[in-house]
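Sanity check record (used in CI):
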Amino acid sequence: MAISLKTRFAGLELSNPVIISSSGLTNSAEKNRKLCEAGAGAIVLKSLFEEQILMEVDAMQDSVYYPEGTDYLRESLKHHKLGEYLQLIADSKEVCDVPIIASINCYSANEWAHFAAEIEKAGADAIEVNILALQSDVNYQYGEFEQRHIDILRNVKEHTSLPVIMKLGMKLTNPVALIAQLYANGAAAVVLFNRMYQPDIDVEKMEHKSGKVFSSPEELSRALRWVGIASSQVDKIDYAVSGGVHQPEDVVKAILSGAAAVEVCSSIYMNTNRYIDEYLRFTSAWMGRKGFEKVSQFKGLLRVKDVKGVNTFERTQFLKYFNEYKNEE
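Expected output for dihydrouracil dehydrogenase (NAD(+)):
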């Protein structure tokens, strides 16, 4: 039996479902070449951060005493950073034979959308839009954050014909409703979920510090739940699972839940590029044992069938879980 790991994600043909997510792993063409040689199905480049550029501009403003100088610095820095990023795209395309996905980390609806056209010219195969922010304003109006996703998507789509992938944070009241709107406005795929900065506190120094940098296996369940629910209701858009994909069997779990691919990062940092082959070998062997020749044959087999009863199902499992782990004291 000939087994194929090929999958289709955001209109792109991938040799396998393992995508390397945006990170320091993908910030140079040489690193990306090695990831391709190790078997990656696609690569999401290190993000172009809107806030980082704005902060650098603000830091330079202290030495500039006239508005025209500030405007010049702002535009100069933006174009310099964009130029570096476009070169990364071009160089990566030259040495990689897998889809190269650009990544824009946006905060505002209009500021960086016009970069999309330049990214397309540089040869990127798709654009992943990453919108990550805490909603903590006491005057926040319900739905504003979700609407920002739609506004940014619309603006990006106006400037490019590339497939646009929306990477969502996990702090959404109803991801399914937002995904439906994103699909209606032209999104080709969504990634569930982005991982926010993890804060911690040093009690001796009494100051803030970074918490865990890498994801943990326990984080996978969030994405499996929502991909399983969303893919059963909004089934015309592609899904990828991100966060907590550590074990080789996690690729199979993601696809069974309805995903077309996974995005991995922490596991590669911790186990090196060679771990990509572990994902691929397990998935291929599992397919052989179960009698599947193609990824599409088992994709979504365990997505949520009864959406209306999902809350009843979740509550039932919750009760069973705690009944099984009673405190015997």
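The first strand starts at residue 7 and ends at 9. If this sentence no longer matches the regenerated tokens, the check is flagged for review.
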